[in-house]
Design goal:
This protein is α+β, with helices and mostly antiparallel strands and 290 residues long. Helices cover 50% and strands 17% of the residues. The strands form two sheets. The chain has a three-stranded antiparallel β-sheet. Strands 4-5-6 form a three-stranded antiparallel β-sheet, covered by helices on one side.
Length: 290
Amino acid sequence: MAISAAEVKKLRDQTGAGMMDCKSALEEANGNFEEANTILRKKGLASAAKKAGRATSDGLIGFAVSDDHSAGTLVEVNCETDFVANTDDFKNLIKNVLTEIEKAGHGANDAWLKDAAGPIQPMVALLVGKLGENMAVPRFVRYAGQGYVGQYIHLGGKLGVMVEFSGVTPAVAAKDEFQALVKEIAMQIAAAGPLYASRSEVPADALEKEKAIYRGQMENSGKPANVIEKIVEGKLGSYYGQVVLVDQPSIRDPKMTVNDVLNAANKTLGSTVGISRFARLKVGETVAAS
């Protein structure tokens, strides 16, 4: 049957697939839009399967935060080249992925993300078929309902940070000093790459590994065991200063720790703002979220 240009455009608008692919799918489906959509999805999935082994080391970090800053999302969306990462099609994919995560809410998790029958994988597959590059959505982080969420995007979208603050009242959130604090803490995380928000989050096995290294450095020192243990505990301060956010030297003033910065801000604000958790996503890099 004859397929009109308007019908082809309608299917293209619905799916984002190429004009010729849309026309071919409509012809195969005898003008049935639902069937044509299924044909395009199958074609996209087949194309994605063929390209699945190709490295997706480029891409962008997508970000969204609610108007009241009670919820926010970071998502990494990968492709093969920077050229594709900067296309409108790819940026629209990121927007659509963020929308689906928000719609799913607490139901959005790793299994949901990777579900071939879920909303994300078919969406990615269609664009793989259209643009001819392998793509992936390997991870996302969503915070909601537990505090004030701030975000910072760096390196043209290649690095994203999200921080959740506790103890933030509407009055505090409205102050310029608090907004400056949010930006400073987020930039600290972007630049210094801490692994944990506080010392209590450091796993016991990670601490034991560090202690074993310090003990090994002094095993032939001749010092008594109790003295060595005190030295080991002292050396842990340096370790905390590398991996724990509040113990790190401030990138603005290395003479202060991030905890000092936080305390000074709270004094100015007359508040008790704290840092609950954070995430730092960099394209192509697997890092922990606190």
